[in-house]
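Inputs:
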Amino acid sequence: DAGVTQSPTHLIKTRGQQVTLRCSPKSGHDTVSWYQQALGQGPQFIFQYYEEEERQRGNFPDRFSGHQFPNYSSELNVNALLLGDSALYLCASSLRRGGNQPQHFGDGTRLSIL
Amino acid sequence: ILNVEQSPQSLHVQEGDSTNFTCSFPSSNFYALHWYRWETAKSPEALFVMTLNGDEKKKGRISATLNTKEGYSYLYIKGSQPEDSATYLCAPYYGGSQGNLIFGKGTKLSVKP
């Protein structure tokens, strides 16, 4: 049973560029959440997708956008990259929305901005 | 902005010691409390999801309690083993306009053999 998979594992970009990160949820899960973890901080919620729509959004600018596909996989897009966007980006999936379901995390994508 | 506090920030114990961590969170509009274990070079792993005041959960040598009225949760590890070395994250869930899980910075546990 495949868990949550994220790609790529590592990515190096320069300021101003755009990046797309990808996530395949655990088999049977329909909800995908994205988190940003900066050094020394806990993961910060970016947004959540369910039924191909953004359902919840954290305190992130519009440069951060996403998409969910009919097969429940998801993409995170970041435009006009800033040095401060350097972080580990985690994808988590769960069965249905709501706080009483544990989230299953991928290994993350390490994004470095030069 | 909701603030979730975890203490201590880090902890070094000997194999066999028992230990506990604290997670404090705003209790207003609280819905559920999640605990995750995050080992180096791996992905965070769910330990517990608790919703009811006074709830207690146990998984092997690890247990957790929840006080929703005062907004805190304790995580206990009995007889720590080197494989327990990890960062332990707590995350309350408020739902609604507050967003998804709100993570603390974690408690980093190191268990020496």
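DSSP finds no helices and eleven strands in chain A. Flag for discussion at group meeting.
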